Amino acid sequence: MSNMSSKLDLSKEFVGRRALVTGGSRGIGAAIAQRLLDAGAKVVVAARSRSDVTPTAATFVSGDVRTSEGVKAIAAETLEALGGLDILVNNAGGSRVFPGGSATIPEEEWQDALALNLLSAIRLTNAVLPALRASKAASVVNISSTAATMPFGPAAHYCAAKAALDAYSRTLAVELAPSGVRVNVVSPGPVATPSADELRRTYPGIPGDAWLQWVPLGRFGATDDIAEVVALLASDRGKWLTGVNYRVDGGMTAR
Ligand SMILES: NC(=O)c1ccc[n+]([C@@H]2O[C@H](COP(=O)([O-])OP(=O)(O)OC[C@H]3O[C@@H](n4cnc5c(N)ncnc54)[C@H](OP(=O)(O)O)[C@@H]3O)[C@@H](O)[C@H]2O)c1
């Protein structure tokens, strides 16, 4: 019951917490990084390059999460900048889509999707695990997708990689629970980010807004909608949550 009043002050709930957000240079990752910064966290964002919406109050670390070397460098630079780690958000992800279906997805695109959406999270978690174990408030949040449970042949590689990320996260949650490291998943539905908007706009046969027919709440998600749930899971408000997968999707998977 200690410290209850500060737990209820959301504007300060991440004071003293150190966070790494991959893919934090834009889109959902930038919103997550900004949400943590706004509540007092020290934040490192990692991506291959900055953008004009990269949170300026965050420390930027450049690297490619698809390779072991890239992940090692990101982990080392992050721990040097922050002196430890409490919150890891594995958000970098995505893939190209192949309207011809799963059989048309080239082998190298499968490798790329698995490296970006699955192996990156595994490697980075392993690289920072000693720091997380040393934290008194350690939390890992992996950003998956409703695609993990809603089959879509043109992105079969992405669906499979995210489904594997979900299974890995549940397994890790149980394994790490005794050490106090919580592991949870947020699965966004269609969120308005420039890259996702472009994909939906150019996808053959489904005009832009037609994607909304699958979203009962009738709008695309905002990046803040995802960031808010990540903040809940990463904060003390979520201290008895581990192994959960929150679908933040305007009701899409409730159908
Ligand atoms: N937007 C949606 O509708 C939606 C729906 C479901 C799930 N998601 C998931 O949510 C996450 C974020 O999606 P988003 O729409 O915000 O994506 P986004 O706008 O395309 O941003 C992706 C971020 O990841 C970084 N990134 C990409 N490849 C990287 C690499 N190889 N190494 C390091 N960083 C890399 C990008 O920066 P650089 O390119 O400079 O590296 C950028 O910061 C992804 O995991 C995605 O699968 C999104």
UniProtKB/TrEMBL annotation:
Listed Gene3D superfamilies: NAD(P)-binding Rossmann-like Domain (3.40.50.720)
Family of this protein? Belongs to the short-chain dehydrogenases/reductases (SDR) family.
NCBIfam families linked? PRK06523.1
Instruction: Provide the Ketoreductase domain boundaries.
Output: 17-189
- Keyword Oxidoreductase annotated: yes
Q: State if Methyltransferase is listed as a keyword.
A: no
Q: Which domain of life is it from?
A: Bacteria
One of this protein's Pfam families, by short name? adh_short_C2
Q: Which InterPro entries match?
A: KR_dom (IPR057326), NAD(P)-bd_dom_sf (IPR036291), Sc_DH/Rdtase_CS (IPR020904), SDR_fam (IPR002347)
Keywords assigned by UniProt? Oxidoreductase
Q: What is the lineage of its organism?
A: Bacteria, Pseudomonadati, Myxococcota, Myxococcia, Myxococcales
Q: Which SUPFAM superfamilies match?
A: NAD(P)-binding Rossmann-fold domains
Q: Which organism is it from?
A: Pendulispora albinea
Query: Could you identify this protein by its name?
Result: Oxidoreductase
